[in-house]
Input
Amino acid sequence: MTRRHKYTTEYNARIVLRDVTEGDLPTFFEHQLDPDANYMAAFTSKDPQDRDAFFAHWAKILADDTVTTKTILYDGQVAGSILSHGWFGELEVSYWIGKEFWGRGIASGALTKFLDQNTTRPLYARAAKDNTASIRVLEKCGFTVAGEDEGFSNTRGEQVEEYILKLGGNE
Ligand SMILES: CC(C)(COP(=O)(O)OP(=O)(O)OC[C@H]1O[C@@H](n2cnc3c(N)ncnc32)[C@H](O)[C@@H]1OP(=O)(O)O)[C@@H](O)C(=O)NCCC(=O)NCCS
Output
């Protein structure tokens, strides 16, 4: 893949956001099992292997009208998910792409589309300071670093520093 075609209209047409269906959940479950992805995301569930906890968490998400959640399709395949929630006060966006789909501009394309469809600002996001790929995705979409925090990472078993990034809300 050449980097250049990532942002063409044709390429972006390959990335589609649609409502999440229950049939997508087994694929999301597989995606979140990956150890490298867990390390990057840092702030994940205590036990990614716990299928019941995973499905209970998603049942809560899908029943919550204040959460906006979409499945990310790439050429019709379920490549990941993106959602915004206000569980901790501020509206926050997060996303997860299956490892087999990394490095194709899918997170960047999906976040761009999500931001076009969901225009409430300010919108926040959090990323471990060493999650360079996620920080890059956010900065390409206009987010800027607005603060720092730290918390215990279940995956890493230690305190991890993170950036808080923000889009809009300064006007
Ligand atoms: C982070 C994540 C969403 C990125 O998804 P992706 O579809 O591969 O991202 P994209 O291809 O759209 O873009 C990644 C950007 O980061 C860059 N990048 C990727 N890995 C990098 C690294 N290790 N260092 C620096 N830049 C990196 C890419 O080059 C690209 O930038 P570019 O367009 O300027 O070349 C994906 O790896 C993931 O889901 N990880 C696990 C869960 C997670 O971390 N979620 C986010 C929680 S904050």
User: Anything to note?
Assistant: The two ends are 39 Å apart (CA to CA). The first helix runs from residue 9 to 12. The pocket of coenzyme A is lined by residues 3, 37, 40-41, 94-97, 102-108, 127, 131-134, 136-137 (CB under 6 Å). The helical segments are 9-12, 25-31, 35-41, 51-63, 106-117, 132-140.
